[in-house]
Amino acid sequence: MKNTYKITTALVFALVLMVSCTKDFEEINTNPNQPLSVQPSLLLRQVIYDYGEQMSYEGFTAGNLLGQYTTALDFNLFDRHDLKSPQLGGNPWPIFFQNLRDNESVIQLALENETFAVYEGPSRILKAYMAAALTDLFGDVPYFEAFRGKEGTVTPVYDTQQSIYTAEDGILDNLNKGITALENYTGSIPLEGDILFNGDLDGWIRFANSLRIKALIRISNQTDVATDLQSIFTAGNFINENAQNAIFNFTDGEPNNFRLARLRIGDFNNFVMSETMEEILAGFNDPRIETLFRPFGNSDSGEFNGLLNGIDATQNAAVLADFSLAGTIFRENTSELDANFMTSWETHFLLAEAAERGFITADPQQLYEIGVTQAFEYWQVALPADYLTNSAPYGTGGDASIQQIITQKWIANIINGYEGWIEYRRTGFPQLKTLSASLNNDIIPVRMPYPAEEEALNSVNYADAASRTDGNSINVPVWWDNN
């Protein structure tokens, strides 16, 4: 009996101990500094900042090489159009997918919890914005099955660019749904973490409508967009002045300054003004050259000089002091610089093109002149009195005026160099130059290549996508590009 009693007592004690441990297990093993759920405000802020900061750097380095704003003196395989060899930029793929994944979490939180409903509109609009930039660079990409790692989908198929733009839950659909969600929101909980519009829901609606204009113009070679564009223009609820721009400011000091300011001086000095940029700015007698670039070191009269893109640095050692570096706004004074998502000047250039092509009923010259005026204001440069009459007049219409519109938009987009390259692919303007020592048979690329890790990590779907692009060729145009 005594032995039985001792055993029973021991069992009871063990059971009590087990229950107690089980009861406290979750509390004991939960790190209070690492919460299991994330507030959508924190995710929204992170997505906006991380994407804006990283893509501004990407746009200025690799994008500016492709768009021929700048050229590289060394470490320049990418500048010579070996796009599978990114150097100091040139690999935006992980930036897109990391931020689209985090943004998808915001969308799901908004859909699953009424408390977070105010986040649905902005997160849908951001998804459309980032997805458009992704597919415009690469063409067909993982989209409808992507961002579902938690659900076990780790090898998503590559969707066609056409479906990404036009299908349900695609770019245009998410912009429309985002606007509807914002217009129908009746809750009292404010939008927090919003570093673009400080919680102003009307600002997000204007942003979405400007993005709709941009998306429709981009696919206008493939589908009829006139009715939708006219409707948006007539309603007038798009970004209409620089005070409404979708931007956030960098600072002069770390950690929130423009990343180019954090490069060691040798890397910063690798990027100089391109010959293409010099000729265009000089042709317009454009005073923005003094903000965007510096006089070259060997000049004794404050002159500017550009270098033809894609030199063979092993055979032709360019002298830094003979060429113009980027302006102080990109390094010493980055508090004057913005991470640029969408602006009024870009919207007006898009509308000017829409009017010139007959998609909307409006005066294209007036829209063009508003775009130019606002672009000068954005870059904090006084517009010369005769700029729109003598230096850069609208022209006589047709291709000549389209060239003026796109070229002025190209200049202003210097921090978003990928945009300049994309618009060149769509329109042929401005006319870019043949490289000094091309590694792509003197052909200007028309898409970015899928990164090598895709072939390793998503091999079956990568192989299918590669077969549609002649083996992942950079010379196969994307769907909307039939220029």
TrEMBL record:
| Stored SUPFAM superfamilies | TPR-like (SSF48452)
Would you indicate the residue range of the signal peptide? 1-25
Q: Which Gene3D superfamilies match?
A: 1.25.40.390
One matching Pfam family is SusD-like_2
Identify the keywords attached in UniProt to this record, alphabetized. Lipoprotein, Signal
| Protein name as it appears in the record | SusD/RagB family nutrient-binding outer membrane lipoprotein
